Amino acid sequence: MSAGALKVIGEPRRRVDGRAKVTGQTRFADDITFPRMLHCKLLRSAIPHARIVSIDTTKAEALDGVHAVLTGDAFPIAYGVLPVSHDEHALCRDKVRFVGDPVAAVIAVDEATAADATRLIHVEYEPLRTFAGPDDSLAHPEPRIHDYGDEGNIHKLVSLQFGDIDAALAASDHVFDDVFFFEGSTHLPIEQHAAVGLKDPDGKLVVYSSTQTPHYVHRALAKSLAMPAAHIRVIATPNGGGFGGKSDPFNHEIVVAKAALLLDRPVKICLTREEVFYCHRGRHPVLMRFRTGVRKDGTLTGVDLQTLLDGGAYGSYGVASTFYTGALQTVTYDIPRYRFRGCRVFTNKPPCGPKRGHGTPQARFGQEVQLDKIAERLDVDPAEFRLRIVAPPDSLTANFLHIGTIALADCIRSVVRHSDWKNTFRKLPHGRGVGLACSSYLSGAGLPINWNDLPHSGVQLKLDRSGGVTAFSGATEIGQGSDDVLVACVAEVLGIDPFDVRAVTGDTDLTPVDLGSYSSRVTLMMGNAAVQAAERARELLADAVSKRLGVPKGRLTFAERRVFDAANPGTGVSFQEAVCMAEAQFGTLGTTGSYTPPKSAAQFKGGGVGPSPTYSYTAAVVEVEVDPETGWILVPRVWIAHDIGRGLNPTLVRGQVEGSVYMGLGEALMEEQVFRRLPARLSNALVHKFPSILEYKSPTTLDMPEIFTDLIEHPDAAGPFGAKEVGQGPLLPIMPAVASAVYDAVGVRIDEVPITPQKIVKALQAKAAGRDARYGPASFPEIRWPEPLLVTPPWEGGDGRASNEPARKKRKAEAGVEATAGVRA
Amino acid sequence: MPEVVEPGVKVRLSLTVNGEPVETLVDGYKTLLEVLREDLQLTGTKHGCELGECGACAVLVDGEPTLSCLLLGLECEGRDVVTVEGLTSDGRLHPLQDAFADLGAAQCGYCTPGILVTAKALLDREPHPTREHIREALSGNLCRCTGYLQIIEAVEAAAALTPDDGAKGTAR
């Protein structure tokens, strides 16, 4: 299909769910009520790490209006999102692992009664050593926070080597060795998580939830409640913001499901804002060390990266997050040899997980800031420097990731031109500066979380004599516009208006499986499935119309709600007539489409994290104004260019880019999920420093810069109509671009985020005192890394396997496992 | 407003909601937010913190943007409340609603009701505000999706359609 023929795709349009959102009619999870509905509150631990000695619920149970009190005894089966980290129980059984870990649940006639009853529950704890950060966890293997993991309180150790990196660094003209720190931050969706559990009239379980991943909630409910998955229906309500924070199956979802089954009444929970901070699953704090070899001509010889992740109290997506800190460095720039070693530790804090960019923004920050330092040392412009090392298109990287199209060079040239970079970089007056950075991101993870051979996304279409089309997809609307992508793809192929297509999404009873709204996968995967389903429907219609009109099928065009002869446009039928003809010929009409990513070339253990059908690319220039006295920092302008492949609805694409810039600026300048000790006279407990929106600072309208967005469109064959992702990638260059802009403005390096006035002042004071003009971590700790898996890069003859990997058992096809997941305890 | 409200005793509340008189019995401790959402089933008004921090629960009380989570229902006796459900008239969207839907100003849509009523109060007061005034007026409404720019542009677009004497709930 040629670009010129597109009618819906590429046009700025009101999104299909736009009217519902501006009239307040979008039904979020907490908007749902049922007759006889009860309310649930959780009692959460006020102690960071302790053994539970006993729980006395008698007083709570005796309170008027209380219908049930549940403890960990009701939840013997563990669950978790990754198969390797089923380490959560809906309510803690033997231990609590952070302040906020739920130990009991009260179900009562209203929220106030339930909250009163939680205060009548007495829990006796035996406190254990608190692990406040990675230093504690590395130094003390005992007591273990979990009884699994690679060793002591180390959850995961990763060690991968692609070519002889030591030889490459030794042969380099320069080796740059830098340590960076990226503070944790949280998603802060404005909608607090909520869920409603109930029995349907047949006695089956229904759970409504503000989740990005109804399929994983479905699996977790089946496992933890030991019920057949086929008897559970999960309905993902539209999310009031997700950003990764609603991607895990959550304890509160399982609790209200269990309570509804026990009481045979609908049970709702809506978390308080404080509790949302405890759910977290946000950005891991990451300490990292980059050693990068460079030749005189500015090309790279290799990168040796170490990362240390503070994982918090549970596994969550953490194993994947760990791999992601080291996965995508090679996708952006040409890196001939590469070593990545990553370590995730458990600590007694809310669990970290996937936040927009999932594990990659931290290392992207370090890599881009280091490139800025390298360019300065080599006395080359940072934009020119990057243009020389951009990774080649249609190629394999050192770690066997396949790059499709890459328009990064165009992105760099765009922001250089639009920002007048050549006349501003190193040329602005003291106190003003510009910085440039780049990034890349997945258009969907190439491998599923639960390894199997099943499609990652399915779409079903129903067409009937009304002329209406209904599109069914398990994808979840989290604000990003997935419903709009679904109907746009279908409408484009069938030549009808998006408003003619009804989207039914995110309902495990009604819709085929889609793995969820995470990893920037929905546009590409659901979009491809939708196109396939629509093309199959078009084929049926074309067959019937061709027979009826005597026009060869190949000449039929679908456009303007008509099916007509391209050679003679007057000859044709309405779309509705075409559907009737096909229904008469074939019977009731329904088609399906599905999408499974191509096989990855990375065959080594750990190679499952990083592959994607294609990658998006972004370049950004950020301008800052820094007060050299106070360190106060303002961002007046951002220029950003994004390699989108093709923008399906440019209005929404721009919204994703600008929203990413916004969230990136929040992380760059102010957002911190940090902790403190309560005074000794209280409990000395490690608690969240400020679990409130007022104190957790995020940007407002007054903080936002002007943003100049340029969408670079080079359609990629892997995506629907050539589209790549846009929801996450554009966040990544913002933090390093701010850091480099601060350096351009006042000559100090802030090698960590957030970049605050205090840190700038400290660096300026160090500079004035003749010390290193820098603020950031001093060193990376010694970690006993395991021997790396040795994988030879493709250009040195490698085949994607590790030469020293013990033979792995051939993976069972997990199709059967997936189908029976519900009955496995 | 009664001086003392006994726990567990419902209190009669009369007010105007979206132009219609409403009489209801409410728990004295309930906020206006809870009265709207739970007693009147007007769930278009959202909550993000219930502590006056995020702006999601904003409604108009006697024409002024007000955080409904910080006001008791009983404090609204005899007052005029407008929620997002009251922005449409004669079956048509308010120009702000059209502009928000068309220009990408609502992504997840959760902060949207609070922003819409806050923007309506601004346009009612100042039909053609400067960009700075729009930013100031909306600075108490947090949005995590959009980065605010498409919101500001949508308010400007709606203002461009507004006659000089103000929007006043008129619809195109």
Name its key features:
heterodimer, A: 825 residues, alpha+beta, Aldehyde Oxidoreductase, domain 3, Aldehyde Oxidoreductase, domain 4, 3 domains, 21 helices, 34 strands, 24% strand, disordered C terminus, B: 172 residues, Ubiquitin-like (UB roll), DNA polymerase, domain 1, 5 helices, 28% helix, 16% strand
How would you concisely characterize the structure shown here?
The complex is a heterodimer of chains A (825) and B (172). With 825 residues, chain A is an alpha+beta fold. Chain A is 26% helix and 24% strand.
Describe the fold and architecture.
The complex is a heterodimer of chains A (825) and B (172). Helices cover 26% and strands 24% of the residues of chain A. With 825 residues, chain A is α+β, with helices and mostly antiparallel strands. In chain A, helix 15 (482-494) runs parallel beside helix 16, helix 16 packs across helix 17 and helix 18 (650-669) packs across helix 19 (734-746). The longest helix of chain A has 28 residues, at 522-549. Chain A is globular and about 85 Å long. By secondary structure, chain B is α+β, with helices and mostly antiparallel strands. Chain B has five helices and five strands, in the order E-E-H-E-E-E-H-H-H-H. Chain B has helices spanning 32-39, 95-102, 112-125, 131-137, 149-160, and strands spanning 10-17, 20-27, 58-61, 64-67, 80-82. Chain B starts with 9 loop residues before the first strand and ends in a 12-residue tail after the last helix. Chains A and B meet through helix 1 and helix 18 of A and helix 2, helix 3, helix 4 and helix 5 of B.
Mean pLDDT of chain B, rounded to whole units? Answer: 93
CATH topology heading of the largest domain in chain A = Aldehyde Oxidoreductase, domain 4
- So how many helices of chain A? 21
Q: What is the CATH architecture descriptor of the largest domain in chain B?
A: Roll
Secondary structure elements and pairings:
The complex is a heterodimer of chains A (825) and B (172).
Chain A: H1 18-22, E1 38-44, E2 50-56, H2 58-62, E3 66-71, E4 95-96, E5 102-108, H3 111-118, E6 122-127, H4 134-139, E7 154-162, H5 165-170, E8 174-182, E9 194-199, E10 205-209, H6 214-224, E11 232-236, H7 251-263, E12 267-270, H8 273-279, E13 286-294, E14 300-310, H9 318-324, H10 329-332, E15 338-345, H11 360-377, H12 382-389, E16 395-396, E17 402-403, H13 408-418, H14 421-424, E18 432-442, E19 457-463, E20 469-473, H15 482-494, E21 501-505, H16 522-549, E22 556-559, E23 562-565, E24 568-574, H17 575-586, E25 589-595, E26 615-626, E27 633-643, H18 650-669, E28 675-677, E29 686-688, E30 706-712, H19 734-746, E31 749-750, E32 752-753, H20 757-768, E33 774-775, E34 789-791, H21 815-819
Parallel strand pairs in A: 1-12, 7-34, 8-32, 10-11, 14-15, 20-21, 27-30, 31-33
Antiparallel strand pairs in A: 1-5, 2-4, 2-6, 3-5, 7-15, 8-13, 9-10, 9-12, 13-14, 16-17, 18-26, 19-20, 19-25, 22-23, 23-24, 26-27, 28-29
Helix pairs in contact in A: 11-19, 15-16, 16-17, 18-19
Chain B: E1 10-17, E2 20-27, H1 32-39, E3 58-61, E4 64-67, E5 80-82, H2 95-102, H3 112-125, H4 131-137, H5 149-160
Helix pairs in contact in B: 2-5
